[in-house]
Every structure is written in structure tokens, then in C-alpha cells.
Specification:
Layout lengths: L1 H22 L15 H15 L7 E11 L2 E8 L5 E9 L3 E8 L10 H5 L13 E4 L2 E6 L7 E6 L4 E6 L2 E6 L6 E2 L28 E3 L2 E3 L8 E7 L4 E4 L23 E3 L21 E5 L4 E6 L5 E9 L14 E9 L4 E6 L4 H12 L12 E3 L7 H13 L6 E4 L20 H10 L3 E5 L3 E3 L5 H8 L14 E3 L2 E5 L5 H9 L13 E5 L30 H17 L10 E3 L11 E3 L7 H16 L5 E2 L1 E2 L8 H11 L5 E3 L17 H14 L1 H14 L4 E2 L1 H4 L13 E3 L3 E3 L9 E5 L10 E3 L14 E5 L7 E4 L2 E5 L15 E6 L6 E8 L11 E9 L2 E6 L7 H7 L3 E8 L8 E7 L5 E9 L2 E10 L6 E6 L1
Parallel strand pairs: 21-22, 21-32, 22-23, 23-27, 27-28, 28-29, 29-30, 31-32, 41-45
Antiparallel strand pairs: 1-2, 2-3, 3-4, 4-20, 5-6, 6-7, 7-8, 8-9, 9-13, 10-13, 11-12, 13-19, 14-16, 15-18, 16-17, 17-20, 18-19, 24-26, 25-26, 33-34, 34-35, 35-39, 36-38, 37-39, 40-41, 42-43, 43-44, 44-49, 45-48, 46-47, 46-49, 47-48
Helix pairs in contact: 5-6, 8-9, 11-12
The structure holds 1-deoxynojirimycin.
The site of 1-deoxynojirimycin (NOJ) has 10 residues, from loops.
GO cellular component, one term: endoplasmic reticulum lumen
Organism: Bifiguratus adelaidae
Subcellular location: Endoplasmic reticulum
Length: about 950
């Protein structure tokens, strides 16, 4: 009876909560903490205030120089807290690729502090350490030399009293730790023990500390370990732009947070939260967190990775020399960015990356946190989702809709309503009587199905997943040892503790075809709500005092929970067949390292122009933080977009890395043919363009996999010396060759675009669609173009070669054996180059050489190629691809002063020479069928002039 009553109440509560989640318009700011409502943020900000307000402020931390030793290629020693006299351990490792790792921990904590973020985040094969060397200059100064490829000299200079660490590249300081003296590590203590530090002179006495218990709205965080925060300031001398630390709906170049023009008033917060219908221009935490920042100026790029998975706040302040920045003089540089990193728990474990270019910094970051997974080919094509496609009939109708209207599509998605009562891995068989048949029908057209699997498990004894997890003790626990019981879509739920290796092992089995009933190889997965979202939890997430495997509080690892879950699912989907295949798993929550597992999207945006605009800076930040496979709900999740907005969103989305149309359950249907002509054609045209460019996108995903460079790139990645690109966030590069500036305003008819001039001032640009050379105005590099409703401003950079597949099919699968078109856009000197990477798109055979990687070069009127394969193309793959041709070569910008083109000669790999047909109009030459196989490289195509 009691249980029934309780269930009844819980049910009601659930209805109310779900109603709140579904209907509330706009973010409820008051559901989420500001820094002032978070004790550890307040305490550390108070230290910063005290430091700023007193000219005599010095850090209480000193390095005990005589303790510095070198062992196992690491430099270690002790730091003394002069206020408490206690010791901290200090360790420095220098890695061979220009990265330094600095760890600071309590020397003898009363219990261990959480250091395991490294386990979830770092790859096992970190770059080798350099032979550690320490040059003691004086009692107060020691130098550790660093090797940075591409840089003449680099070093780390440690000042002992007070502790300060400067990083120098070619004698220029580029990053300083503890320059402002804000290093703080709250030592663990027992509640009844007094603090070792004399409180009377401490800033903390002036703030309400919230050290042992803290209340937010109706929730009380009991904080059994008391205060345990860690903090450090990081200064980027000479840098006025810093980027990264997603996820925030804010500007790409990060704003100041403690005063200044147009600043945010709160620090940027990293705490994975379910913030539906979030506000833009806001540093509030969102679904994912990557505590990685890049600073860039025309000479240098540096990176800082703060490896901590607890709640984190980051303050940013910018100063100029005239304001009296006191440490360094920077020739010709005016601005310096000071940042303050504050985490609730854990240790200080930071990595400094010395670049020197933005691409180098990303490469260094990826060497730590792992290469982005090579996605299965279908997953970079178009996805069609909605909450919810209601039945298999509905799915069949949508599927057929694409074909009837000649619109390509690769994937149809099923949201939570496809399950039996939100019990994941089950089907509502009344609506989906034969899921296998449904998948097979999609698969017959080369299409896939994605189903949603969330981490909350309905507490229902009749549900096998719940019973198995409960019996095997795999759920997150309450402090008193019970399974944590919270509220989510299914009602009363428990959450799998993926930090438990047994839970991951078990989870992986749940995706085997005989376990996940009615699933087939055509099914891939969507991991949602994995921040984790808990409707009746503090800030809509799990209480921090919940307990994970090993006795760790949720507090210490909250931000990495969703990443671990994502990783387990990606593994599970990949190993469900005998021969592992690449999985596609989309996650909402993310952390450093997420890139190893799959894609992420930016959660519950709205169908507004503002959110369309916002998608560009958000995705640029996420890509810069090492997660290249990212996208936003195309069309906007909440609300009904106007047809114009929807079309403009498609036109932007096709150039963003992950394209998925998605919509809330309460919205009107918006499949792209529902608006009638001429709209259907317009939507089709946009999607067809993405499909043509799939070879180029796939090549970029491979580059991201190999080097970490984002697919959707900030302008400064390609033009690192051009300061005018540094704050650009409404235009971006897709790879090195395409510049895109989507139309993101209602009724817009003119678009201005900044076309950088390149280092030697002679960059040519072509309009991607008309293929005509752009004439720049005499006033500079900014052009204006009229934009009709079908126009997407896209420009092709002179000097690049882009591979396309121009035949329209209904899915990417249908294009596997289609021939290629090469677009050769010449630069001022008549040269161009570009790459094409190709593999089977689904297995891991590329690791064994089953791929083709061309570098095409056009020079001296000749097109040639070099295979970049590190080993010969695996024979079976070569034989499968042998018949695939290059069917067309389009050369843009050929010089009139070459004379008259008399013929195009092809020298094929067998030594046969023949003339190829061509058409020439002005400076564009289209060579037809040069009869070249895509697996071969020993050929050349030559333009002969009279
Ligand atoms: C929240 C997700 O952000 C949204 O995309 C999804 O449709 C709903 N959950 C329902 O599963």
C-alpha cells in the first residue's frame, strides 16, 4: 500500500516534471548556479579579488628549490604553502612533441584525491618524455629546456619564491602559470579540525564559504569531504584572443568575465547540464565540457589543458600594457589575457602545448587525448530525425518521401517513443511490429536506422536491463549504499555506473544482436541525457554526493561521466559483429577525449535565427577543442521555423560537420518536401551539394583523425597571421579549400564576406558555385554579394584541389563506385594541390592499408598525383576500386597568357599517351573522361598550349 501510494506520488511528480521540461519556454536561469551560489567559486574568486586589490599580494606558495630532483625523466620536488607550512608535491614532465605536464597534489592528504581523470582522458601511448634536464640558475630560478618541433628554442623557467612558471618560445614568454599568485589547493581535513591557515587575514573570512554544506534551492549538498577545490591562474602574455573551453553559447573568441566592455559577468562554467532552450551570449554551463583553451596571436599559438572532470569555472581578464601589465614587455603587442581556472575537487594536472601554429597545438592536444574516430562513411551524410517517428509505417513513409522527391538521405532516427515505456533496448511492438524488416528495408537502399539509448534505467522488476544491472550491482549508489533513484523519462530510474569496469563489460554485451532484440547491423545509436540529466536532481543532474565505483563521489568525475558512457556504447556497437566495424554513436554530453568515440550535437536549441547564428561559433569552439564531428539540430529543436529559416539552416548545416534535421515532439512536421515547390527543390539542392562534397568531407575527417585539425575550421587556422580573422565567427573554412559564410538573418539579401589575402598578399578566390574568379574591391578584402534565397556564399581558395562525386544518388552507399570530379582552382602562379582519402567506409581495414590517399598537384600545366599511403594499397581493396574513375577535371583560373590551349594529353600508368576531350570557356577548362583509375598514381595530365 505504502509503495503504491509512493508510486502514485512519484507518477504525479513525474508528470509535473515532464510537463515542465516540455512546455517551459526559455531557459530557467534560476535552475542553474551562478558563481556567487557556488562556495568554491566564491572562495577562489575572493582570492583573485584580494590579489587584485593589494599591491603587496604574493602567492603563499614557494618551490623548495633544493628538493628538485630528476627521476624517470621527470623533474619533481616540493612546494611549500607558507601559510600552513604544509607541502605539496610538484612534478614536471616534458614530452617530445612540445608539451609539458605539470602536476601539483597534496603531499600527504588524509585520503587520496581524485587523480583518475587521466584514466578516462589520456591515451595509453602518450608521446615519449624527453630526457629531463634541469638547469639551476640560482636559488630562485631553474630552467627546464623543452623541445618543440618547428621552434628554435623553448624552455620552462621556474621561479621559486613565489612560485611562478614561465614558458618561453624563442625567448618570448607565451604562457605563465601562477603569475597572479592564485594557485590554491584546499587541503583535505576532518570537519572538526581547524583550518591550518590563519583565517583572519584571509579573503575567505569575508565570504560565506559553503565549505561543509551548501544549499541551492531545495537541495543540500552535504559535502562530506569539506572544501577541496584547486585553482591556478594562467596568463597568456601578448595574446588578446583565447578560444575553446566549450560548451557555451557564447562568442568564439572568448569574452572577459570580470569587467571590461561587453563582458560576461560570471566566469565560463564547465559542468555538464541539461539546459534546454539555452540562452545565447551566455557563459552558463551546457551539456559538455572540454577544459582546453587555445591562445593565438600572429606569431604564436599555445594551448592549455586543465585535466579535471569536476565542476570548473574559468575567469578571463584582458589587460593592455598601458594598463600596467608588469611582468613582460611585448614589442608591438598590446594585450595580454589572464585566466583563472577553478575546479571543485581533484588535483592540478595541466598540460601546456607550445604549438607554434594552431594546427600544431591541436596535434599536440590529440597526442594526449586521442585521435578523433574515423567515422563510418554514411554518418557524415544527411540524417533525418524527429521526436518521434511514430511507427514503422511512418518510417516507411518518410523513407519513401526522400525517394519520391529525389532528396538524398542516409539515416532515419527513432527517439524515445519507439521503446516500450522508455525501456531502452525494447520496442513498442504495437507501433513497430517488425523492427528487423524495417531496418532491412532501409538497408536495402543503403540507409541506416539510429535508435536512442539513454543511461537512465527504468526501475521495473520486469525489465531485464534493470534486473541484470541491479543484481550485478552496477548502479550509481547513494552515500548509504542504495541504488540511486532519480527521475527521468521512464519515471523512477537508476543510472548505470560506467566507471565500473564490470558495468562497461556488461553494457558491451547488451548490444549483441541476440541481446538487443530486433537490432541489425543497420542500427546505430544515440546516447542522450548523459550529463546525466535527472529531472528531480539539483540543477537537473545527479547529486554530487552520489557514489561511484571505488567509493568516489560523483562530484569528482561528473563532467566525464557522459564520455565514459559514450565510449562504452561506441565500443559495444563496434564489436557486436564478429569483424569489428566502425560505430556511429551520437552523444549529448562530452568531455576531453570524446572525439575517440563519435559525434556530439549541441542539444536543445530553438528554431530561431539567433540559434542558427549561434551554431557557428559553438561548433567552431567544439571543433577547436578536439571534437571535429559536431553539429546542431538543423531547423532548431524547439518551435516551428519559418520555411525560410529552415532552408537557411539546411544551407548552413550542409557545411557543418554533422548534419541532422531534428525537432521536438510538439512541433509541426518538417520533412523537406512538406513545403511544396519551389521549396522542395531548394532543400534538395542544398542536400545534393553536401552529397557531392562527401569525398572532400571524408578526406577532412581523415585529416582530423590523423592530426586533430577540425573539419569546420576557424578562419585563423588557415590564415594564422591575418589578425582580421581572429574574431571571425560567422564565416569559417571547411578544410583548407572552402570558405563558407552562411546566411543567418531573416530576409537578408546582401552578404559581406572577408576573403583573406594570404601571407604574400596574393590569394585568389573563386565563387564555389559559379566557379568564377572573385574580383576584390580596391578597398581591400571584404566583398559584398547579393544573396537570393537559394544562394550560399561559398568560396574556393585558389591553390586548392577538391575531389567531388557529382552523380546524385539516394544515399551515400549508392555512390561508393561513382567516379570522381576534380576541381582544380589555380592560384596566382597557376599551381594547386589537394588530397583525397578513400576507404571502404565501414571497417577498420584502412589500418591495414585498405585505403587510397592521393595528393594531387597541379604545376607547370600538369596535373599529377602522389599516393600518400604508407603501405601499398591492400590488393583486395585495390581490385574492388580499380574500375572507379576520375571522370572529369575542372581547371579554374588557367592563364590566358599561356597562349591558346591546343590539347590535353594524358600519359596513363601503362605508358600510353592519348588526347582527352575538353571544353574551354574563358579561364575554365573542363577535361572529360581522362580514363584514369582512382587506384593509380603513375599518370599525368598535361595542358598543351600553342
Ligand atoms: C532531449 C534531447 O536533447 C532531444 O534531442 C530529444 O529529442 C529528447 N531528449 C527526447 O529524447
Amino acid at each position: 500500500m505504502v509503495t503504491r501510494l509512493r508510486d502514485g506520488w512519484m507518477f504525479l511528480l513525474g508528470i509535473v516534471l515532464c510537463f515542465a521540461i516540455l512546455k517551459v519556454e526559455g531557459v530557467k536561469r534560476e535552475d542553474f548556479k551562478a558563481c556567487a551560489q557556488s562556495g568554491f567559486c566564491r572562495r577562489n574568486r575572493a582570492i583573485a579579488d584580494e590579489a587584485a586589490s593589494s599591491s603587496s599580494w604574493t602567492s603563499p606558495f614557494e618551490l623548495v628549490s633544493k628538493t628538485l630532483t630528476v627521476k624517470d625523466n621527470a623533474v619533481s620536488g616540493y612546494i611549500k604553502n607558507t601559510k600552513s607550512s604544509s607541502l605539496l608535491t610538484f612534478e614536471v614532465q616534458v614530452l617530445q612533441n612540445g608539451v609539458a605536464r605539470i602536476r601539483i597534489n597534496e603531499n600527504e592528504p588524509i585520503k587520496p584525491r581524485y587523480e583518475q581523470t587521466a584514466e578516462w582522458t589520456l591515451v595509453s601511448n602518450l608521446p615519449a618524455k624527453t630526457e629531463a634536464k634541469i638547469i639551476k640558475k640560482s636559488d630562485n630560478e631553474a630552467v627546464i629546456p623543452m623541445q618543440v618541433p618547428g621552434v628554435e628554442s623553448a624552455s620552462m623557467v621556474i621561479h621559486a619564491k613565489p612560485l611562478r612558471i614561465d614558458f618561453l618560445v624563442n625567448d618570448t614568454p607565451v604562457l605563465t602559470l601562477n603569475e597572479r599568485g592564485l594557485l590554491n589547493l584546499e587541503e583535505l581535513r576532518r570537519k572538526d579540525e581547524p583550518k591550518l591557515v590563519d583565517q583572519s587575514d584571509s579573503s575567505e573570512s569575508k565570504v560565506e564559504t559553503g565549505e561543509w554544506e551548501e544549499t541551492f534551492k531545495t537541495w543540500t549538498d552535504p559535502k562530506p569531504n569539506g572544501p577541496e577545490s584547486v585553482a591556478l591562474d594562467v596568463t597568456f602574455p601578448g595574446f588578446s584572443h583565447v578560444y575553446g573551453i566549450p560548451e557555451h553559447a557564447s562568442t568564439f573568441s572568448l569574452k572577459e568575465t570580470r569587467g571590461g566592455e561587453n563582458a560576461h559577468s560570471d566566469p565560463y562554467r564547465l559542468y555538464n547540464l541539461d539546459v534546454f532552450e539555452y540562452e545565447t551570449d551566455n557563459p552558463m554551463a551546457l551539456y559538455g565540457s572540454v577544459p582546453f583553451m587555445v591562445a593565438h596571436n600572429p606569431e604564436h599559438s599555445v594551448g592549455l589543458f586543465w585535466m579535471n572532470a569536476a565542476e570548473t569555472w574559468i575567469d578571463i581578464v584582458k589587460t593592455t600594457e598601458t594598463e600596467g601589465f608588469h611582468l613582460f614587455k611585448h614589442k608591438g603587442k598590446t594585450s595580454t589575457t589572464q585566466t583563472h581556472w577553478i575546479s571543485e575537487a581533484g588535483i592540478i594536472d595541466v598540460f601546456v602545448m607550445l604549438g607554434p601554429t594552431p594546427k600544431d597545438v591541436l596535434k599536440q592536444y590529440i597526442s594526449l587525448t586521442g585521435a578523433p574516430a574515423m567515422p563510418p562513411a554514411f554518418s557524415i551524410a544527411a540524417h533525418q530525425c524527429r521526436w518521434n517517428y511514430l511507427s514503422s509505417k511512418d518510417v516507411a513513409m518518410v523513407d519513401a518521401g526522400f525517394d519520391e522527391h529525389d532528396i538524398p538521405n542516409d539515416v532515419i532516427w527513432l527517439d524515445i517513443e519507439h521503446t516500450d515505456g522508455k525501456k531502452y533496448f525494447t520496442w513498442d511492438y504495437a507501433k513497430f511490429p517488425d523492427p528487423e524488416k524495417m531496418q532491412n528495408e532501409l538497408a536495402a537502399k543503403g540507409r541506416k536506422l539510429v535508435t536512442i539509448i539513454d543511461p537512465h534505467i527504468k526501475r521495473d522488476d520486469g525489465y531485464y536491463i534493470y534486473k541484470e544491472a541491479r543484481d550485478a550491482n552496477l548502479f550509481i549508489k547513494t552515500p548509504d549504499g542504495n541504488d540511486y533513484d532519480g527521475w527521468c523519462w521512464p519515471g523512477s530510474s537508476s543510472w548505470i555506473d560506467y566507471t565500473n569496469p564490470l558495468a562497461r563489460e556488461w553494457w558491451i554485451k547488451k548490444f549483441k544482436f541476440d541481446d538487443y532484440k530486433s537490432s541489425t547491423p543497420a542500427l546505430h545509436v544515440w546516447n542522450d541525457m548523459n550529463e546525466p540529466s535527472v529531472f528531480n536532481g539539483p540543477e537537473i543532474t545527479a547529486p554530487k554526493e552520489m557514489i561511484h565505483h571505488g567509493g568516489w563521489e560523483h562530484r569528482v568525475l561528473h563532467n566525464v561521466y557522459g564520455q565514459i558512457y559514450h565510449g562504452a556504447t561506441a565500443k559495444a556497437v563496434s564489436v557486436r559483429e564478429e569483424t569489428p566495424k566502425r560505430s556511429f554513436v551520437l552523444s549529448r554530453a562530452f568531455f576531453a577525449g570524446t572525439q575517440r568515440y563519435g559525434a556530439i550535437w549541441t542539444g536543445d536549441n530553438t528554431a530561431s535565427w539567433e540559434h542558427l547564428r549561434n551554431s557557428n561559433p559553438m561548433l567552431l569552439s567544439i571543433g577547436l577543442a578536439g571534437i571535429p564531428f559536431n553539429g546542431a539540430d538543423v531547423g532548431g529543436f524547439f518551435g516551428n521555423p519559418s520555411t525560410e529559416l529552415l532552408l537557411r539552416w539546411y544551407q548552413a548545416g550542409i557545411f557543418q560537420p554533422f548534419f541532422r534535421a531534428h525537432a521536438h515532439i510538439d512541433t509541426k512536421r518538417r520533412e523537406p518536401w512538406l513545403f511544396g515547390e519551389p521549396w522542395t527543390t531548394r532543400f534538395r539542392n542544398a542536400l545534393v551539394e553536401r552529397y557531392k562534397l562527401l569525398p572532400y568531407f571524408y578526406t577532412l575527417f581523415h585529416e582530423a583523425h590523423a592530426l586533430g585539425v577540425p573539419v569546420m575550421r576557424p578562419m585563423f587556422f588557415e590564415f594564422p597571421q591575418d589578425e582580421r580573422t581572429f574574431a571571425l565567427e560567422d564565416q569559417f573554412m571547411v578544410g583548407p579549400a572552402l570558405l563558407v559564410k552562411p546566411v543567418v538573418n531573416e530576409g537578408q539579401t546582401v552578404q559581406s564576406i572577408y576573403l583573406p589575402s594570404g601571407p604574400n598578399g596574393s590569394q585568389i578566390w573563386y565563387d564555389y558555385f559559379t566557379q568564377k574568379k572573385v574580383t576584390l574591391p580596391s578597398s581591400g578584402q571584404e566583398i559584398k554579394t547579393t544573396v537570393g534565397i537559394e544562394d550560399i556564399p561559398v568560396y574556393l581558395r585558389g591553390g586548392s584541389i577538391v575531389a567531388r562525386r557529382d552523380r546524385q544518388r539516394r544515399s551515400s552507399y549508392g555512390m561508393v563506385y561513382d567516379p570522381f570530379t576534380l576541381i582544380v582552382a589555380l592560384d596566382e602562379e597557376g599551381n594547386a594541390e589537394g588530397e583525397l582519402y578513400l576507404d571502404d567506409g565501414e571497417t577498420f581495414d584502412y589500418e591495414k592499408g585498405a585505403y587510397i590517399h592521393h595528393r594531387f598537384t597541379f604545376k607547370n600545366n600538369r596535373l599529377t598525383t602522389q599516393l600518400l599511403n604508407t603501405e601499398p594499397i591492400a590488393e583486395d581493396y585495390a581490385s574492388v576500386m580499380h574500375k572507379v574513375r576520375i571522370e572529369r577535371v575542372v581547371i579554374l583560373g588557367s592563364k590566358q597568357d599561356n597562349g591558346k590551349l591546343s590539347k590535353v594529353v594524358v600519359h596513363d600508368p601503362k605508358g600510353v599517351t592519348f588526347d582527352a576531350g575538353y571544353k574551354i570557356s574563358k579561364s575554365k577548362i573542363v577535361v572529360r573522361d581522362p580514363k584514369l583509375s582512382i587506384v593509380e598514381s603513375q599518370w599525368r595530365l598535361e595542358l598543351k598550349y600553342q
